[in-house]
Amino acid sequence: MKDLRRYLVLKYIQYLVLSSSNAISTLLGLLGSFYTIIILQSAKVSSKSTAVLISSLAKADILVSVSAVSEMVVWTFDVTISSTAFTSALLQNLLTANTHISCLLLSCVAFEAYLITFFPTESRHLRTVKKARLTSRIIWILVTAECALFQMDDLLKASSTSAPTCSPCVLLFHFSSTAAALLRSLSYFLGILLRIVNVYIYYKIFFSMSNR
């Protein structure tokens, strides 16, 4: 459990403290996720809701691995990509999806820690493995839909110059562009809100434990 706590601290720093990811934090995050996945396979780790959330958090770094490996293959072997704009947008959207999934799951872990600290008995029916898996699945579905919308918007923007002005795709272009812009703004403000909420939760937990 000490290793899992260290992993959570690393992820909080990576996604909720640093303004943007860098090569060092990304590499440490990938190594930590790989190590955490191995730890969670051990019989010594009990199957609890927190472990389920942490497992889903570690698996989210698969998106970073796909993006990093793809860029390395293109750079190392000088691979020619037929649709550079599409691929570049896809790799960026995968990183965005990873960030959003990680922030939401870290917030779920923080909220669960808050319930354990202040409402251990009353919240027992909420802190189940089944509900943790359902929460993780919902987060993955929502962020996947967000990633698909961003990708469609980027694709339509890349092809907008060659598309005819009277094409029915114009309506789709304006809809996806507006929806993507609103979703990006919502994601930005939600990210700020999650940072504030997480700081408040751990502030309350810290002083509660200190008083005891």
UniProtKB/TrEMBL annotation:
<feature type="transmembrane region" description="Helical">
    <location>
        <begin position="12"/>
        <end position="40"/>
    </location>
</feature>
<feature type="transmembrane region" description="Helical">
    <location>
        <begin position="181"/>
        <end position="203"/>
    </location>
</feature>
<dbReference type="InterPro" id="IPR017452">
    <property type="entry name" value="GPCR_Rhodpsn_7TM"/>
</dbReference>
<keyword id="KW-0675">Receptor</keyword>
<keyword id="KW-0297">G-protein coupled receptor</keyword>
<dbReference type="InterPro" id="IPR000276">
    <property type="entry name" value="GPCR_Rhodpsn"/>
</dbReference>
<keyword id="KW-0325">Glycoprotein</keyword>
<feature type="transmembrane region" description="Helical">
    <location>
        <begin position="132"/>
        <end position="152"/>
    </location>
</feature>
<keyword id="KW-0807">Transducer</keyword>
<protein>
    <submittedName>
        <fullName>CXCR3 protein</fullName>
    </submittedName>
</protein>
<dbReference type="Pfam" id="PF00001">
    <property type="entry name" value="7tm_1"/>
</dbReference>
<keyword id="KW-0472">Membrane</keyword>
<dbReference type="GO" id="GO:0007200">
    <property type="term" value="P:phospholipase C-activating G protein-coupled receptor signaling pathway"/>
</dbReference>
<dbReference type="GO" id="GO:0004930">
    <property type="term" value="F:G protein-coupled receptor activity"/>
</dbReference>
<feature type="transmembrane region" description="Helical">
    <location>
        <begin position="97"/>
        <end position="120"/>
    </location>
</feature>
<keyword id="KW-1133">Transmembrane helix</keyword>
<feature type="domain" description="G-protein coupled receptors family 1 profile">
    <location>
        <begin position="32"/>
        <end position="212"/>
    </location>
</feature>
<dbReference type="GO" id="GO:0035025">
    <property type="term" value="P:positive regulation of Rho protein signal transduction"/>
</dbReference>
<dbReference type="GO" id="GO:0005886">
    <property type="term" value="C:plasma membrane"/>
</dbReference>
<keyword id="KW-0812">Transmembrane</keyword>
